[in-house]
C-alpha cells in the first residue's frame, strides 16, 4: 500500500490550479512573461542576445519574487508594506504611555476645584448684587421716596 505524507498544519497547503502552480504564481509569471519576452525581442537586435537576456531577467525578477517569496505566511507585498509603514510612515520614537490612576485623580481634583471656584465666585457676585440692589430698593435704603413712613 502506498503512503502519502500529510502535513500536520493544513493551513500551509495551497491549492494548485495548473502546471502544479497556484493561482498567484500563474498570474505573476504570466505578467512577467507578457513584459519580459517582448522586451527581449525589442532589445535583441540593438544590444545583442546576452544583454537582452539580462535585461529580460532583471525586468522579470520582481514578478518572480512576488510569486514565490513568502515569509511567515505573508506574501512579498505585505512584507514590503509593513517595512514601509515602520520605516517611513509611523514615527520613529513612540513614547511609553500608561493611564496612571493617580494622574487621573489629580486631574479630577483640579477640575472639581475649578468648578467649585466658578460656582462660589458666581454666588459671591450674586450676593454682592443683591446687597447693592437691597440698599437701593428697601425701606431703609438710599431712595427716600420709596421708603415706607413710620
**Total number of strands:** 2
Helical percentage: 55-70%
Q: Specify the overall morphology.
A: elongated
Order of helices and strands: HHEEHH
Main sheet properties: 2 strands, antiparallel
Give the DSSP E fraction (strand runs of 2 or more residues). under 5%
Question: Number of helix segments?
Answer: 4
- Determine Rg (CA atoms, Å): 41 Å
How many domains? The number is: 2
User: What strand order characterises the main sheet?
Assistant: 1-2
Contiguous low-pLDDT stretches (5 residues minimum) are: none
Q: Briefly, what is this?
A:
Pfam families: PrgI. The protein contains four helices and two strands.
Polypeptide structure, described:
InterPro entries: Uncharacterised_PrgI. Keywords: Membrane, Transmembrane, Transmembrane helix. This is PrgI family protein. Helix content is 64%, strand content 3%. It is mostly helical and 150 residues long. It has a two-stranded antiparallel ribbon with strand order 1-2. It is elongated, with a radius of gyration of 41 Å.
